[in-house]
Amino acid sequence: MTAPPALSVRDLAHAYGDVAALRGVTLDVAPGERVGLLGANGSGKTTLMRAVSTLLVPDAGTVTVGGADARRDPAAVRRRIGVVFQSPALDDALTVRESLALQAALAGLAGLGRGEARARIDDLLGRLDLADRADARVGTLSGGLARRADLARGLLHHPALVLLDEPTGGLDPLARVALWDTLDGLRRDHAPQAEGSAQLVATHLMDEAERCDRVAVLDAGRLVALGTPAALKAALGRDALWLDTDDAPALAARLGHERLDARAVGGRVLVAADDPGALLPALYARPDVRAAALKEPSMDDVFAAAVGGAFAGGGAGTSTPPGMGGDGAGGAGRHHDEVSGTVPPAIIDPLPLDPITE
Ligand SMILES: Nc1ncnc2c1ncn2[C@@H]1O[C@H](COP(=O)(O)OP(=O)(O)OP(=O)(O)O)[C@@H](O)[C@H]1O
């Protein structure tokens, strides 16, 4: 029997008054998988996290965690998730160990017996490299250590899915790397489907997105791209050709009339072609092009292209996504098993077979 997805979100929609925060988001996270959630401010990431964590009852759609339905059985969902949000949930005045013991009692771990709860806390303190700070007050810890202590709190009850909302927000670069190493370690230490092995991580940082098995990009409440970092980059072409110009939409339109696949993205023009290098000299010579450069696609390009509409197929006014083929174009559907946009639903990618070994 196959295990249910760690998380299954179907057609999730929610509005705050007349502000539509989520508009039909569908997303699965496999047991053991880490999915990164990217999106500009206000794109709906926190609303999605709140719906998954049962803090918010969405207007429409379903959320199931390990098979438990958030609407019908929110308590079962809460038992299966660990939440590490931006504001730490530990009491500054208590020591790390006291704070975790209090949380363990609140989470019902005391029912396992004090000895077992203590063993669980010791295990987590060891794995999260906090053992030597166990008796320090939370309020005296550095930002990185405090975040790790908060992570220990989120993991106490053996959750199957950990929700992390900008887990490295406010941390210095070294503490960021250390926290990600810790998150990697948690996955390595546990076989898929064991505690804490699936992670949904909201982040604004592209290097953090690179550390995810798959990345989901939200734009104005819609899922506009979903795939492995490698597949999303590959969908932009082997090398992306970027043009600097004074009026990107106008140049993209002119190039479109010349039968090139060009789109305005973040004030520049992205040209997709099988051999973009061959186009470079002629494009560079144009009076309406200030500079032209070939660049291996990065996650920044993926993000810019996704929110610029490059992965959304089929909608009115959208052209064929670069690298995804199209009507009559070579390689139609080339990446459909790896990369998806919002429409058509047929190209939503399935869960990877082995999400950890990418
Ligand atoms: N409590 C609320 N009341 C009214 N509008 C809200 C509320 N919470 C969020 N919104 C609006 O819903 C939309 C989605 O917000 P959300 O916080 O989910 O986005 P986000 O992607 O998490 O943003 P950020 O990256 O800034 O945290 C935004 O337009 C936001 O202004």
From TrEMBL:
Ranges where the record places region Disordered: 314-358
Biased composition (Gly residues): 314-332
Key word Transmembrane present: no
PROSITE patterns reported in the protein's UniProt record: ABC_TRANSPORTER_2 (PS50893)
Domain ABC transporter, residue spans: 7-245
UniProt keyword terms in alphabetical order: ATP-binding, Nucleotide-binding
Record has Electron transport as a keyword: no
Pfam family for this entry, one: ABC_tran
PANTHER family: ABC TRANSPORTER (PTHR43582:SF5), LINEARMYCIN RESISTANCE ATP-BINDING PROTEIN LNRL (PTHR43582)
Protein name, UniProt field: ATP-binding cassette domain-containing protein
Organism of provenance: Rubrivirga litoralis
